[in-house]
Amino acid sequence: MSEHYFTNNSNLKSNLRQIPYQYQDFDLTFYSDNGVFSKNKIDYGSRLLVETFLKEDITFQNFLDVGCGYGFIGITISKVKGISGDLIDINERALHLTKRNILLNKVSCNAFNSNAYENINKLYELIITNPPIRVGKEILLEILIGAKKHLQKNGYLYFVIHKDQGAKSMLKTMQEYYECSVIEKNKGFWIFKAKNIDIT
Question: Which domains, from first to last, does the chain contain?
Fold first, then answer.
């Protein structure tokens, strides 16, 4: 079985690199390495998710980035909005990179290990994720539907799924649990906005 970015392999050779990213007047840099998702460039789906989200007119004081990789989504949001957030992953190399990138980009964030919401013990106004599709549908739904238990009432979940990876059926599933809509489509990527309200 090939190595995936959601597994840990301490024997994997390191090849550290830097990836620049600019959003409006904000210049950010991210350390990346072998064994993490989209190691050579900012993933287009993640970028579309962040840039679509940053155009949204919502207020929030805390957030959670699930499956943060080397921290692009959470760190960018923290930098642009000036808000502290929590970033979680199960890949130890990704978390090590995220912690370096938090310092490098001078943002106020916490990065720690959590398998989905295993180590989460508080509620958030925003949860955002580019979920690891390859983990399978069961864990994918655990991340997306499970977010409801960790969102404040009227809090928001934003996520991205490619149309070829079940975006259309996911919309129907999510509408059973959230007030959910697709707010952007580009290059096959769908950006979802799900509000945590009581569905009757």
Answer: 17-195 (3.40.50.150)
